[in-house]
Amino acid sequence: MPPDLNLRISPRSVQRETVDKLRLAIFSGLFQPGSRLIESQLCTQLGISRPSLREALRSLEAERLIEIVPNRGPSIPALSWEVATAIYEVRELLEVEAAGRCASRISPEQLRELEKSLSAFEAAASSNDSLARVMTAADFYSIILANCGNPILEEVHRGLVARISFFRGRSMSLEGRAQSSLSEMREIFESIAAGDEKAAREASKQHVLKAKAAAKISMDSGL
Amino acid sequence: MPPDLNLRISPRSVQRETVDKLRLAIFSGLFQPGSRLIESQLCTQLGISRPSLREALRSLEAERLIEIVPNRGPSIPALSWEVATAIYEVRELLEVEAAGRCASRISPEQLRELEKSLSAFEAAASSNDSLARVMTAADFYSIILANCGNPILEEVHRGLVARISFFRGRSMSLEGRAQSSLSEMREIFESIAAGDEKAAREASKQHVLKAKAAAKISMDSGL
DNA sequence: ATTGCAAGAATGTCAGACAATCGGCTTGAC
DNA sequence: GTCAAGCCGATTGTCTGACATTCTTGCAAT
Known about the structure:
Two copies of one chain form a homodimer. By secondary structure, the first copy, chain A, is mainly alpha-helical. Chain A has two domains: 14-75, Orthogonal Bundle (Arc Repressor Mutant, subunit A); 81-222, Four Helix Bundle (Hemerythrin (Met), subunit A), CATH 1.20.120. Chain A has ten helices and two strands. Chain A has a two-stranded antiparallel ribbon. In chain A, a hairpin with a 3-residue loop joins strand 1 (67-69) and strand 2. In chain A, helix 4 runs antiparallel to helix 10 (197-222). Chain A is globular, with a radius of gyration of 19 Å. Chain A binds chain B through residues 8, 10-13, 15-16, 51, 54-56, 58-63, 69-71, 83, 86-87, 89-90, 93-94, 97, 150-153, 156, 159-160, and chain B through 8, 10-11, 13, 15-16, 51, 54-56, 58-59, 61-63, 69-71, 83, 86-87, 89-90, 93-94, 97, 150-153, 156, 159-160. Chain A binds a DNA duplex through residues 11, 13-15, 36, 38-40, 48-52, 54, 70-73. Chains A, B: It comes from Phyllobacterium bourgognense. Chains A, B: Keywords: DNA-binding, Transcription, Transcription regulation. Chains A, B: GO terms for molecular function: DNA binding; DNA-binding transcription factor activity. Chains A, B: Pfam families: FCD, GntR. Chains A, B: This is GntR family transcriptional regulator.
């Protein structure tokens, strides 16, 4: 048995359930950016006590998914385009590196998983369910990041992508964006499958750049 | 007046004070890796109530500075060399990028600040105060990261460096490491001052690689 | 030596309370 | 009519105390 295999079962505590639920609520756009979150309301809605809720909020604050201004309480941060750009730039840095590493080290079975997730996105791209598109696309990246051989790269990437989930949902609804996204992702996949590190890097870079451009369009038009 | 200048003074809440104090305590190595943190003890030591402490602990957990296992409570994670390697690799990615950008965009006065921090490190390098060495070195990087034009790059970097503060303290105590570190940092500074982006990238890369090697030595010898 | 059990310690969670602070509304002055 | 001042409800920051659940440790028994 590998010594680093963690056999511990993790009990679901109220705090963790709450973090997960709120995170999902934020992803799905339940709260408007800039809107305040009222502790007492959330407590009744979630059916938990204030101390538990406040612990959960502190976790989300550290993840930068919410902001907590002293004496004003938690709110959904309004993401400026400046910050969004910065996030896309770092995301490019990380994803390019991950795709490159992935190309030279992914296992055959994980490669099949990657292909499956690409198919799933292909199906979602033709549908009207924009949440499904975002989710399946996220799966695709997850597999790449999980196979780049660097858990920190994966962790940091997840944190960043979470913060631009707002844009992802909107730009994936853009006319034609899902289809072009699909072809870009297919290119990434082909490069990785061929073990071509350089090509994987380049394809990955192009993909992020276009995602960023799409996000800008959706922001300019939508606001 | 720039419209994005945040004039809001942030009241110091007990929670934030606690996070800062604990973070500093962790940096300075007050807690052994792997050791558990007992809530009741911390409460009396810090003179605060359990809810406030628990909120602070959740923040630190999200920063990955502590681990909280359900029903076992918080503890200082023992950093494996595998994870440390992963952190150094991502740190390299970020720092190289930051140094490169910095070279082509830093302002003259910030460049002077950078020079001052280099001098401060030079002084610390000759002293015996290893905490001062770590702190002044951290200042040097901070200035570079703050002037790379990407706040996210800075934020992510800070989070990663915090997690390897343990190693930084130990490797800075290594015979000769501070001096070689100094010459590497000087090289970075010179490249940035000359506006030579490529050289800044290369110097930065070498610096991180050597820091990583020093960390490995200190780990192998010290454990 | 290993197993099983019991006492103690520590955590997870809640309810309730109160002061400090913020935001909006009313009031009053010019 | 506009603007300033001040009051009031809403909300957050923090604490105390409590209790069930879970973990750890030491000891006894096989």
